[in-house]
Each structure stands twice: as structure tokens, then as C-alpha cells.
Amino acid sequence: MNRIKLVVFDLSGTTVEDDNAVAKSLHRAAVEYGLEVSLEEFQQTIGTNKIHLYQYMIARNQGLPVKFEDFETYDFPELEVEALTLFDRYSVIMLDYYRQHVKAMPGAEETFRWCRANGIKVATDTGFHRNISDAIIESLAWKENGLIDLAVHVELTGGVGRPAPYMIFYAMQQLGIQSVHQVVKVGDTPADLLSGKNAGCIGNIGVLSGANSVEVLGRIAHTHLLRSVGELPGLLEQQF
Questions:
Q1: Is 204:7 a contact under the CB 8 Å cutoff?
Q2: Which end of the chain is more exposed for a tag (fewer CB within 10 A), N or C?
């Protein structure tokens, strides 16, 4: 167990119950705006910076040859105003949802406690901006109750989110972890797994409690796939 010093957990769909609300909220704002994109496309691309995601979706609608694996390498300044309009509407929808429905995923808080009891730092990371991330963390009182050490959102890394690895590196820096060989990343989206892969985490673990199936997550480089975050302590005890 001494091998693992930090676990970085995604929020919605991993440690926070979601009912696919993130993808639905993104899709609702897009449809209201007139963007031609499916709910399934958002399900497979959530976990990213949402402003960048709308820029990416608008670029796709315009026929530009963009690939999700290169998501955070693109720069579409000409699409920023349009993307911000969509993002502002999405934020209203999303915040309204979380003010009414914030609830920890079954097994999440028990897993946090187990990590802390075993000397493992706990961080959350998310594609949300500060307002939504703070609303979730404060409503669940995870910091006040000593369940997590750090909450990372995309504004802390200059807006660069997944699949880039920088939120994981930020957590490592803030918590004094020097090696990715002591870090496990856990999440329910392709973006989560790609960020863990890009960071070089020794454990890159997908969970099936969110919007994506085993077929979707299985296509992304990973070390393990679990049904839920509640299975993580047993896995760490057995294999790390």
C-alpha cells in the first residue's frame, strides 16, 4: 500500500451521482442554440473544459477535421464568443441541477475514508469551472468533513483540462507527490482515462457508474475497469 500516495477522483459519474445530467445539460444548451449534435456525442466527450468542448463541437459542425485525442491542442479563438454563449446557458442549467440534486455516489465517501486511513491523499479533478466545482464540494462538505485533501477544477490549470494531464500534475504539486508511479487516476469518461494515460499514472482506472459503457471505456488505454468507485479499496489492496 505504501506504493500509492495519491488518488485523483473525477466528480460527476464517478464520486457524485449524475443521472447523465452533465451530458444532458450540455446537449440541452446546444439544442436550444441550434447546434446539431447528439446526446451520445456529449456523453463520450464530457470530463473536458466545457468552453473548449463547445468550441470543439462548433468546429465539428463546421466540418473541421478535429479529433478528440487532440482536444486540448486546438485553439479556435474565432469560436470563443459563440462557445461562451452556449457555456453560459449550460452553467445556468447545471447549477440549477446541482443545487437540487447533489448526492455522493454510493461507496464514494467510504472509499475516501479508506484512502485517508491508509495514508493516501485524496484529490478530485473535474472538467467543471470553479462555480460548479465549488457548488458540489461545498454542498457535500467533503473538505469540512476531512474526506478530501484538494479539489481541482480547470481554472486552476489556466483552463487547460482533460485529456491533458495538468490537473493531475497540479494535484501532485500541491500535495507533495513527486512520482506518477505513486498516483492512481479514477474516472468514468474517455477524457479521464486519456488524462491518466497522458500523465503516466501507475493506475488508470475507469468506472462504469457514469455515462459511458464498458465498450466505450474499453477502447481507451486503462489498467482496470470497475463497476463503481466502491470497489477501489479492494483493488488497491490486492494489486498495488
A1: no
A2: N
pTM greater than 0.85: yes
Indicate the pairing of strand 183-187 with strand 6-10. Answer: parallel
Tens-digit pLDDT profile for residues 145-183: 999 999 999 999 999 999 999 999 999 999 999 999 999
CATH class assigned to 21-101: mainly alpha
CATH number among 3.40.50.800, 3.40.50.1970, 3.40.50.1000, 3.40.50.720, domain 6-19+103-239? 3.40.50.1000
